[in-house]
Amino acid sequence: MNGSRKTVRPARAGMHRAGATIGLAAALTAAAAVPAHAAAPSAAPAGTRVTAVAGSDGSLTLHVSGGAAALTARAVPSTSPAVTRVFVPSGGSTSCPSGYACAGVPYGSGAYVFKFYRYGSYSLSYWGGRGVLYNHQTGGAAARYDNSGGGQIGCVPAGVLRNGVNWDPVWRIRLTSAGC
Q1: C or N terminus of the chain, fewer CB within 10 Å?
Q2: Pairwise CA distance, residues 63 & 2, whole Å
């Protein structure tokens, strides 16, 4: 990649920026003054995982496990360009229409589900934890996910639901007409 990603990834748990630890009050105050493209807390508590079961009608039933619901304000996961995004509480469901690829990202006591339709690249901001990627595209189209250097981490063929996707190192999702 050529630096087109504008969001700075937060430090991992146990790591400190510039050798300092910031208290909750200071972090919340600082977050209010920091532009949206700057560093933000993780999108999900450590250990949070989203799993899904796909129905024959394209519906996804999501379950969130591990980690406790975060008590602090966190940035909401997003994409650029923007796609349809819905919040689904644990145990809830949403559709992933035919022709779409849908990704679930843990957030609090549920998950945000992003619905991608057009071929192309989508930069990710504030994605973390373990989630799902359901490629409900047709005709052999692939859903790929890449690291910060543009290297492909994984590829999900059409018709496949992949649970356990680690979103922490993923910076981009690509929909392509070429198969995996």
Answers
A1: N
A2: 36
SS3 49: strand
For the stretch 48-58, pLDDT in tens is: 778 888 888 87
In one-letter notation, the amino acid at residue 100 is Y
Q: Does the pTM of the predicted model rise above 0.85?
A: no
Contact 145, 170 (CB under 8 A): yes
Indicate the domain borders of the chain: 42-176
Q: How many CB atoms lie within 10 A of CB 71?
A: 9
Lowest mean pLDDT of 6-15, 23-32, 49-58, 126-135, name the range. 23-32
CA-closest candidate to residue 146, choices 165, 174, 116, 166: 174
Q: Is the omega angle on the peptide bond into residue 106 within 30 degrees of 0, that is, cis?
A: no
The answer to whether the CB of 38 falls within 8 A of the CB of 11 is no
154-164 pLDDT, tens digit per residue, is 999 999 999 99
Cα distance between residue 97 and residue 117, in whole Å: 9
Please tell me whether residue 10 adopts helix, strand or coil conformation.
Answer: coil
The rounded distance, in Å, linking the Cα atoms of 60 and 64 is 13
Residue 45 · residue 67 · CB < 8 Å:
yes
- Report the amino acid identity of residue 20: A
